[in-house]
Amino acid sequence: MSRVRTVLGDVRPGELGVCDAHDHLFLRSPQLPGQELDDASAARAELVAFRAAGGAAVVQWTPYGMGRRTADLPTLSRATGVRLVCATGLHQAAHYPAQMLQGLRGRLAEVFVAELTEGIGTTGVRAGLIKVAGGFHALDAHARWTMAAAAEAHHATGAPIAVHLELGTGALDVLDLLCDELEVPGDRIVLGHLNRFPDPVVQRQAAASGCWLAFDGPSRAHHATDWWMPEALRALADAGFADRLLLGGDTVVAGARSVNGGPGMPYLLRRVRPRLTQVLGTQLVDRILGVHPGQAFAVDWK
């Protein structure tokens, strides 16, 4: 039977509840100096605020080597009552020291499988998804390497693959690689950041593969396209893809947290949810937030 793998153990898909399907509690990168998400107290406060707004679960997409602070996640989940899903995987090369990447050569899929089945480090926390990343309108050698490893780990475990689309681009290239070449079923793939490149034709073509379409934000960097999201979702629903949609907050820097004056995780439920309800109706928005994440991240674990 399919289960969602949380940091406190596996749960039935229907037990996940209202879910932020793409966010970060902890994250560190040389590309974001001085903006790290590394404060456990702030993470707890953010989860408390999200819970108060009606949230029940968060899928954290922070992958291997980017400051996941996995050992803190069970404590945070117990303290706040919010279910947490942790990721394995690898981001773009720019986020890592070259020496670290070299050390993963020849064993990347093995690392992913171990984190999904045995646990991350000595924490005992098992990852529930594999996060990888594409490039801007293209896939470089690093992306192909990480996606090949992710596909191998998927075939070994059944785990879903969540993909960072750089500025929302490259969705069809990702699907060509993962689905056509590497034989990953479309419904085991989550494409992130589609709101950042709001091409309705590409979005419908991507949805036709059976993949999940994640719309996440808001952010200062992508504010120019944030306001397109309600109409983009309605167009996809009208085209018959209402059952493929996910929503997330994608908080990646400390200043974006609600406890630091930013929109943060609660914004998804406080402002985005009622805005989307005006366009899509309560029933569909409730499914996108409360049903689809359980379906997207549930696995018949091998």
Automatic annotation (TrEMBL):
Sequence similarity: Belongs to the metallo-dependent hydrolases superfamily. Phosphotriesterase family.
Keywords: Hydrolase, Metal-binding
Gene3D superfamilies with a match to the protein in the record: Metal-dependent hydrolases
Keyword RNA-binding belongs to the record: no
Signal peptide extent: none
InterPro entries the UniProt entry points to: Metal_Hydrolase, Phosphotriesterase
SUPFAM superfamilies with a match to the protein in the record: Metallo-dependent hydrolases
Top-level taxon: Bacteria
PANTHER family in the record: PHOSPHOTRIESTERASE-RELATED, PHOSPHOTRIESTERASE-RELATED PROTEIN
Protein name, entry field: Phosphotriesterase
In-chain residues carrying the UniProt-annotated modification N6-carboxylysine: K131
